[in-house]
Amino acid sequence: MLRREFLLSAAAVVGPKPTRPPNIVWIMGDDLGYSDLGCYGQKIIRTPHIDRLASEGTRFTDAYSGCTVCAPSRSVLMTGKHMGHTSVRSNPGGVPLLAEDVTVAQVLKQAGYATGGFGKWGLGDLGTDGVPWKHGFDEFFGYLNQVHAHWYYHPFLFHNEQRFVLPGNEKGNRTTYSHDVIAGKALDFIRRSKDRPFFCYMPVTLPHWELLVPEDSMAPYRGKVQEDKPFITPQKHYADQPEAHAAYAGMISRLDRDVGRVLALLRELDLERDTVVFFTSDNGGALRLRGDDYFGSYASFRGNKQEMYEGGIRVPMIVRWPGKVPAGRTSDFPWMFQDVLPTLSAIAGGSAPGGLDGSSVLPTLLGKSQKPHEFLYWEQPRYVAATGEFQKEQPMQAVRMGVWKAVRPKPDAPLELYHLKDDPGESRNLAADRPEVMARIEKYLQTARTEPRRQTDPNLGYWNEK
Question: DSSP characters for 47-81?
């Protein structure tokens, strides 16, 4: 009797066993357009699994990438610092994070998470301080140098610092599709990590050029989409593709298939309610770079990847967390990749570092109200790879302030001003008509950025590696 009373007393003191923090899965397409998904208005390309994710979670209409091109956008995501402060501000491939940079993976690892990255890293090659295993990832599998990721039949990937040979891809042969191997490794990580909190970061390469996908994904679209503009390029590192539209649609449907595989695995492991799933794109779509908008990938937005108009930086963003994030909801709350680190830290109960530009949007995810950023900021300095220097000029820039958006479309060009609520297509420049708005934005720009550090040529040694 005495022992029983002691045990009851001890249980009362200790209390119930604390629940573990939720798992986090971040899936990110590469150059996926805002309207390339059914849940964002796509009529041709089929994305049933991502559409279901949206119906079971919250779909954001005013979410933004960190930049209009790959590596800088990922640097913003990883560091919680916008383009005026983050370390990687150029995009030719391989430019590393600094040793002192703290990433979202480091924050989650410190909070007790298993951390895995699967896909395209782009923030530091071998021999630099920017490799993922120096920035909080227990495991990485995929492309380190983002230029390698232009090939879906590359001869090798990396499993941490070890080369992982893709069978049958030697000497230009095409046997093993890299995305399939990457997706399989991500699923394996989830299985192996199911008994502890995990962060599965999946920056996959689809549908980035080159436009290639296995036949089982091409077949549903062949003959059913118009092919008036074949993807023929003089660049040797891209394959010619006379059925460019079927390939592009097939790539997105293959990505959707693997989102479905992730969701099915979470259900199989009874982890659905304990996992927050994010789905987004790293920047705006790229088809307009070839004068092509067959799929209507940009909704009503102007511009594309490499530009600061909405088509280059506004991205799809879907968040599902059953029982926490409202299902079937659409939100126009504006947020961007700088907010990812503090948001995931808040979800995990971790501690975010100081000096961030981002802030947690967890209240918004949970359906509560919160004050948005007064300003959101993007830039893209002009970089000369041969010297590692940035040009001394006003960089291409964008600022969102409430419903207002200022754009400097080219370095040293004058700022343009648009009212996004009335003119989401950024067709009417109101800079001359609203001097008071321009004055507020120009005052902010005086303190929005620091000069970027010198960056060494990121392609040194690359061509010998390929």
Answer: -HHHHHHHHTSEEEEEEE-SSSSHHHHHHHHHHS-
